[in-house]
Amino acid sequence: MSRYDVFLSHNNHDKAAVEVLAHRLMDKAGLMPFLDRWHLVPGEPWQEAIEEALDACQTVAVFLGPAGIGSWENEEMRSAIEERVRDKSRRVIPVLLPGAPDPREKRLPRFLRRTTWVDFRGGLDDENAFQRLVAGIRGVAPGPDLGGEPRPAMPRPTLAPARPIPHYHDFELQVGDPRRGRYPVRVVESPAGEGESSLRLPFADDELSTVLTRLEEGKANSALLADVGERLSAALFTGDVRARYAESVGRVGDDGLRLRLRLDPPELQALPWELLRDPEKREALALSKRVLIVRYLPVPRPSPPIAVEPPLRLLVATASPTDYLPLDVGGEVAAIKDAVRPLGNQVQVIPVPHATKQTLRQHLLDDDPHVLHFVGHGDFDGQEGTLVLEDERGRGERLAGTTLATLLKGTNVRLALLNACLSAADAAGPNRRAAMLGVGPALVDAGLGAVIGVQFSLPDASGVALARDFYAMLARLLPVDVCVSRAREALLLEAGRDSRDWAAPVLFLRAPDGVLFVS
Fold first, then answer.
1. Where in the chain is the domain with CATH 3.40.50.10140?
2. What is the pTM of this model?
3. Cα 224 from Cα 215, distance rounded (Å)
């Protein structure tokens, strides 16, 4: 997969108009276009660079303006058509700019007369034309037009809760280092007081690897999810701990519980605690709306909420290196923008497509974001979890979690959402998996109030659903654990009960009450 999503072939007379559309493709759709003015390196042979970019791009957009097809543009167009004949997966999209002649005129190339075009002759701000162009680049049907005349905006369904969010009381469990094969469990805080018990791992090592592999590969069903959740619950809620939990549920009435898990031994981070089930009702706690599951990381000085003067700035870094499986990163960026669009200037989305270490660092410095959202691959370097960015050639380059933590220290970033896909091999090894999930605690140690990781690789559609619902709630400045809970519901609706997607988000929390931002 190329580091560019589309090659923009154009006549030099039309460069200003094409550059306007290039900016829109990058800012609104999260796509990275190849534009000669942006990407040709001074002093290097430009013809070779153009040919390399043409070969690498799956889609070529051929622009036609008032001056017609330029001589070099004609060569680019014919080269793209030849590639299209050899490889049907390649796309060549004719685009009509303002002042362009009717494409059916015989003096124009036959290709332009016989191919479905995108028509901007009504203006570069034509939203229908822009959405058709984006759809063509992604290789999907654009759907119905928005209509010739502007329509009044239809009322958007609100994601705000129909009734007030319940108050959540803390039920904090600390699991310590093992003694003679058992882990001590202590109720640190609860509405019913303190208590102690112990935990024995409910899986042998080989069985755990098998379970994690099935979950990572999406070969789970509701029966497996229930079995894993019940075994984890039976191990965690024993003796005094189970009694304190049952009493706490009774005492809080219509309020809820914030189940804060302090997992001191790193190997316990590998277990999918988000599948926990109520020990009495045998329902998934994370879907009950009355229980929030967080992995709590107490620190000497908790991160206070940050007062945000609008806009709330979301830095969305995406990477899909050519030597890894391709990802629909643009779809997730579009979903985030769609989620916050009703809020107008209250939230700003800053895309960083094809993120490299250098561009990520520069945007953190220049844009002063409050939230970092990463979409891409995760990896394991033998010692710790890493995010996979891109190098200058579009290939994968690892960024260690501890290094990212260093970059985030001293910034206004209070939340990171890391939608980083693991390979099945990494997910099958509990130690590797624990190391990957260790990125979250490393960032919390750097001063972030919360980090959301993804413990199972999410399909593109689920990644979009997670981003859309989570940010729609966060933009209302709700506690981050409440936002994650609502996003789990969206994942359940998207993928169904037989999917483990709803349990994929893992929330590492430093802020005691989940509040990260205040107005």
1. 6-138
2. 0.69
3. 9
